Amino acid sequence: MSSKKLFRIIKLLFFVGVFSTNFLFAQVSVPVQNFGVDPRAYVERQSFWSEFNLGGTLSKNGRWQYQMDYQYRRASDASFVKGGTSNPFNEIQQQVFRPWIHYWAIPKIVRFSLSPVGLWVTWTPKEESAVYINKDQDPTHQSVFPEFRICPQVTLFQNIGRVQFINRFRYEFRFVGERRVADNSLADFGLGFNFAPTDIQDQTGNYFGNNHLGRIRWQARVQIPLGKGKTKIENNTWYLNSWNELFLGVGSHIPNTKLLNQNRFVAMLGYKTKSSFPIKIEAGITYQTIFQYNITNTPTNSSVSLGKNNVENNLAYTVYVIFDEFHLLFKKKKDSAE
Fold first, then answer.
1. What are phi and psi of 153, to 5 degrees?
2. In this predicted structure, what is the pLDDT of residue 333?
3. Do residues 144 and 185 lie in contact, with contact meaning Cβ atoms separated by under 8 Å?
4. Which of 122, 170, 200, 300: CA 20 to 30 A from 98?
5. 8-state DSSP, 241
6. Looking at residue 205, what is its pLDDT?
């Protein structure tokens, strides 16, 4: 497949997702919230999420597999920011580097996985630095903090006709670093490496984000190939990929009132390319609901009380590029050279 054709497919998938989302939300009339009466303060945000997923098979019997994820995310201002922008590409939000090793206990039915260590680097927008305290006590610039995660995972697969049902169960051991003022350069990746746990309830000057946390994630997914006679996702196939994922906070540093962490609903249109090495491109939307609970600092917009049980609804335009057998790219080059 030529690079021009690949780029056209990416643009088509992305704009289908953007158009369908804007049409959907244009039909919904959102009432003005009464912050003096309502027990929760709802805020909104838009963002752009992308992921490059490099995977493949390690063993001849196909049971052992590898995977490397890279995620890049940008985000708009939250709706409580006065004069803020709704541009989803406004500021960098997060970068993720995460390796996986997979083992099929029962081929095509049960798979065990482990991410031995992954790195998350997350930036807080400068307009919201008065809400989230950083170690440098600077409320005028972006903040940044690192996070390491160790993730065991079990995935169950079931096929009924052309429809594939997937249930994924993941536990995250999270080591969250200290929030520091961002340098907006590669130096950001070296900041905040203090992971000593603090009291997550403490929102005073002694709390800068660092903690040891745990989280359970349950994802229920469905994949459906499109087209006459298509019973599975193979080369030159369009398909639907949709899931809902529930996040529950657990561990000694999570109070009972904060067990419900977030929820994500994702709807994607995908295409598996017709080429000698498999590439899948998916685009659509992610609707993320984050249960922020109480944030007591003065927000940028005083009409929103962040002393309430706060909920953020984030609409993310999402693009995935997935290489199923990434190593074949290099094998082809090697064979050509010989």
1. -155, 145
2. 56
3. no
4. 200
5. E
6. 47
